[in-house]
């Protein structure tokens, strides 16, 4: 197992350094063509590698670097992750075109600046548009009916925000947008299906995000579950404590019965399966529930929809996938999950997967949007029971 881990890490680093070297070489060729004798390769490569490795430097030096420096490095590195992906997509076709032009005896001084500026323009457009998609959340509305009674409730309005990823990149400014939009929805209930924070709890505390998040309020309460990033950060007790302080209950393999009308089942993230305590099965969590009443399941990663349906869940809310966040990554998430984004009816189960409110890594979205889900559930008793 250790050998496999070492090999996996070595492969990741080889890809990171290889891809960055490939991008850096193209930047070297382009800038030397544009700047001529005023271009200094040594300075270029030092600056390039500091930028290219800034995310790793922020992570590795988080315990020794000043908080401000670590945050700046992480922000630079986050945007660079997007540059890496766009470079991976843009540069091979560029090289192919350059090769064809070279074989056609077109002078390099002619096609290098043209191709370079075209790539730079495409990159700029993608980054600007991607930043807009990430920072301009939309409300995505789903309206469903459940053939069960929920006391005297005829319907329930729920605001759902997954994958907020609060930390060094997503902070109070974006969080205030969430608060404002949720207030406008006037929900009866607010649900947060995991990855509320982005690994480290310290930025959440340092920038007093709890004061902003405390404004998320609804008559029936605010409930959250753990995501994989809470496990990656390893600060779960501190996270739960912070949530308790602001009135948000974190459900860790727990079931709550709201006003004797509705069940909310909150699962630990799938990452818990690799820990000593593990996580309970959904069937075990639902023991003792009255299946004649509606059941909403919060499970961060949208695996095993069939098991949720078999267990008798009516609604399953998830996130995690970000819908790939940057296209064409959605082609990968689509293969990994039965439902990687949107809505799916599976038997009696209504499954909904959000692309998330925040972002991981670059605050960039292409082919996806930052979203808040407005879920309206209509309750109606089974026709046979009414007869």
Automatic annotation (TrEMBL):
Alphabetical list of SUPFAM superfamilies matching this protein: Metallo-dependent phosphatases (SSF56300)
Sequence intervals crossing the membrane: 5-23, 43-60, 72-91, 111-132
Organism: Paenibacillus planticolens
Gene3D superfamilies: 3.60.21.10
Keywords noted in UniProt: Membrane, Transmembrane, Transmembrane helix
Protein name, UniProt field: Metallophosphoesterase
Domain Calcineurin-like phosphoesterase: 156-323
InterPro entries: Calcineurin-like_PHP (IPR004843), Metallo-depent_PP-like (IPR029052), Metallophosphoesterase_sf (IPR051158)
């Amino acid at each position: 197992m250790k050998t496999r881990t070492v090999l996996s890490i070595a492969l990741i680093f080889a890809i990171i350094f290889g891809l960055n070297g490939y991008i850096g070489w193209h930047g070297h060729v382009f800038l030397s063509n544009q700047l001529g004798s005023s271009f200094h390769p040594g300075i270029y490569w030092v600056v390039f590698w500091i930028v290219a490795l800034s995310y790793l430097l922020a992570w590795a030096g988080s315990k020794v670097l000043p908080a401000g420096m670590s945050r700046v490095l992480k922000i630079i590195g986050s945007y660079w992750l997007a540059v890496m992906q766009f470079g991976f997509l843009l540069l091979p076709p560029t090289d192919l075109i350059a090769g064809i032009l070279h074989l056609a005896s077109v002078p390099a001084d002619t096609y290098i600046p043209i191709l370079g500026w075209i790539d730079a323009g495409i990159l700029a457009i993608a980054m600007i548009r991607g930043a807009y998609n990430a920072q301009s959340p939309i409300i995505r509305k789903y309206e469903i009916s459940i053939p069960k009674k929920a006391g005297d409730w005829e319907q329930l309005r729920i605001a759902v925000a997954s994958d907020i990823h609060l930390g060094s990149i997503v902070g109070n400014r974006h969080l205030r947008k969430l608060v404002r939009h949720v207030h406008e929805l006037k929900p009866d209930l607010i649900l947060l299906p995991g990855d509320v924070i982005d690994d480290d709890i310290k930025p959440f505390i340092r920038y007093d995000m709890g004061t902003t998040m405390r404004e998320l309020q609804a008559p029936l309460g605010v409930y959250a579950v753990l995501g994989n990033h809470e496990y990656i950060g390893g600060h779960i007790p501190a996270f739960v404590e912070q949530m308790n302080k602001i009135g948000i209950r974190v459900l860790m393999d727990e079931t709550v019965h709201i006003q004797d009308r509705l069940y909310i089942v909150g699962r630990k993230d799938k990452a818990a399966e690799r820990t000593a305590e593990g996580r309970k099965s959904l069937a075990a969590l639902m023991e003792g529930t009255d299946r004649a009443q509606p059941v909403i399941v919060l499970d961060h990663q949208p695996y095993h929809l069939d098991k949720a349906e078999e267990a008798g869940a009516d609604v399953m809310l998830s996130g995690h996938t970000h819908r790939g966040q940057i296209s064409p990554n959605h082609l990968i998430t689509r293969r990994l999950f039965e439902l990687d984004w949107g809505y799916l009816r599976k038997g009696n189960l209504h499954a909904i997967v959000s692309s998330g409110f925040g972002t991981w890594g670059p605050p960039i979205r292409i082919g996806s949007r930052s979203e808040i889900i407005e879920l309206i559930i209509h309750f109606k008793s089974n026709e046979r029971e009414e007869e």
